[in-house]
């Protein structure tokens, strides 16, 4: 079977499973997976599909705006659920933080869906996610969230290929995780820390870096950028500009991780396996 034929078969399987639903609410972060799922749900269910985004202090404004733009392009109704506070179980930042966070967020998504007469909540987990240690997935299983991309046998490369075919702007969007993942496990999460990280990462985004993280270590900002983007820091003017900007965000020191962006790098501080919850924990 050719690659295109295999992709077509998986996509048709996905559409078939979605079409059997009376309606569905997609947990929508604006990333590649959930954007593709919104597109497929809209195609299969029409107006019986909605997208729900949780806007909390852990989601940067830029990501919320990007999600709104994708929803408008797909043509799916976009519901924004505001979460002003950080739950204590999440703020304590234990190793299973993602379990507590997902339980709360998907509970709120389910409630928003039920208010519209929708009983089924979908998430964008794909087949590759099964290889990771992901406490967040346990919460989704307990709540009864459905993962149609995974059930259709779709992997990340499949989702990107199909997204590109259908003209979705997220087809090559780099992976993203909530801002809490920039803070080492065991260190308390608060709005001030999250705001500092958000402002610092916005600096890097405006400088044109596509894959970048600012890891918070007290007063130190440890920068991780994609390995292929590291060479840009040989520019002394860029070094000085980024350093000044991040210090204006509230950091005393700015350091560069020489190996570049590494998924799950903060997990090494707590002895978590390197495959740990890449998408939802310490990405």
Features:
10 helices, GMP Synthetase, Chain A, domain 3, alpha/beta, Rossmann fold, four-stranded parallel beta sheet, 283 residues, globular, disordered C terminus
Task: Please characterize this protein's 3D structure.
The protein is of the alpha/beta class and 283 residues long. It folds into two domains: 163 residues, Rossmann fold (3-Layer(aba) Sandwich); 91 residues, GMP Synthetase, Chain A, domain 3. It has ten helices and seven strands. The strands form two sheets. Strands 3-2-1-4 form a four-stranded parallel sheet, with helices on both faces. A three-stranded mixed sheet has the order 5-6-7, covered by helices on one side. β5 and β6 form a beta hairpin. The longest helix is centred in the middle third of the chain and has 18 residues. The C terminus is likely disordered.
